[in-house]
């Protein structure tokens, strides 16, 4: 089967959630199929890294991303468009032309679009069967952020924004033969925006368990990890919440939280000065930090989708403590695979409990590792996507013969 794969994030190196998902799905699909890639490039992307993809796909074309400029002319014109301003501002017609050219040249059996950020580059009424792989229910992420604002102009404006985005997201989803969501929660949220969306499958996030060796877990005492770039607002909010609300309950314990991921250009006032938080920055291999961590904490209060940071920690055998929202989309059993806590005091108590009870920590470690091996390995998930695509292609061929 020939697969044309469109990615909003250049998938190498696979160092954030979107890239990890795209890379591993391409890698899995490439086992028995020909995969062709059209991708956007980010500021931190290196086009020369295409050579690392040669063994799993053919890179057809790469295109620079255009970042949203709220005060720009195109953005202001977006106020009068049915599309969100960010879409109007960043649209590049050359990407659409590249997609049409690739379809004409390659004659793919199926088109897979990785994330809503590429959906508008796919023309409607294509003759090629198509799948939209949704990383998040985007409007729901915006709604959660809007709901946290105090009543007034800003909340009203944010509500208008998420409602417009919900209509756009529904419209984009309806262009595709199949849509996938990362969790049942996201599936239900999509159906709220597009009740008539029929072919909607769950395709969760995953982890390459073969890359992680839980027997190497050798934690340094009183050391926690949060593996997430602070350039993503949900991660920054989580760390600020940890510092202002959770850490005061831990200040006399000597516990240190190491935060990995990029944070350049971010206002870190109040973060850098916290004695219980150490900003590690970007690391080439998260496994080196994970294996030295006594627990992974995920105090998320916003965002969407499902958290690869949790799956990575579980694969590495590192116990996870999370808010209920942070563990959304992962069907882990609290107390068996993960510890969940939502109030600052309960979260701090959970940290103390896991760090102070080796038997509990070891139980969480082994249970969670087995759990992700059985349920969330990328090899299983990519096979599921192949089955969806193959069924879609088969039904299209049957329809064409009828």
Distance between the termini: 21 Å
Q: What is the level-2 CATH architecture name of the largest domain?
A: 3-Layer(aba) Sandwich
Adjacency order of strands in the biggest sheet = 3-2-1-4-5-6-7
How many helix segments?
A: 13
Task: Return the domain count.
Answer: 2
CATH fold naming of the largest domain: Rossmann fold
Q: Can you give the mean pLDDT?
A: 92
What sequence of helices (H) and strands (E) makes up the elements?
EHEEHHHEEHHEHEEHEEHEHEEHHH
Find the structural class using helix and strand composition.
Answer: alpha/beta
Report the CATH superfamily of the largest domain.
Glycogen Phosphorylase B
Please mark out the parts with pLDDT under 50 across 5 or more consecutive residues, or reply none: none
Total strands: the figure is 13
How would you sum up the global shape? Answer: globular
**Helicity, as a percent range:** 40-55%
Strand content: 15-25%
Any idea of the CATH class of the largest domain?
A: Alpha Beta
Report on this model:
The protein is an alpha/beta fold. The chain contains 13 helices and 13 strands. It has helices spanning 17-29, 73-77, 85-90, 93-106, 138-147, 153-173, 184-193, 233-246, 286-290, 308-315, 344-356, 358-375, 378-401; strands spanning 2-7, 34-41, 58-64, 110-114, 130-133, 178-181, 200-202, 223-227, 256-260, 277-281, 295-298, 320-322, 339-340. The strands form two sheets. The protein has a seven-stranded parallel beta sheet, with helices on both faces. A six-stranded parallel beta sheet has the order 10-9-8-11-12-13, with helices on both faces. Helix 1 (17-29) crosses helix 13 (378-401) and helix 5 (138-147) packs antiparallel against helix 6. The relative contact order is 0.12.
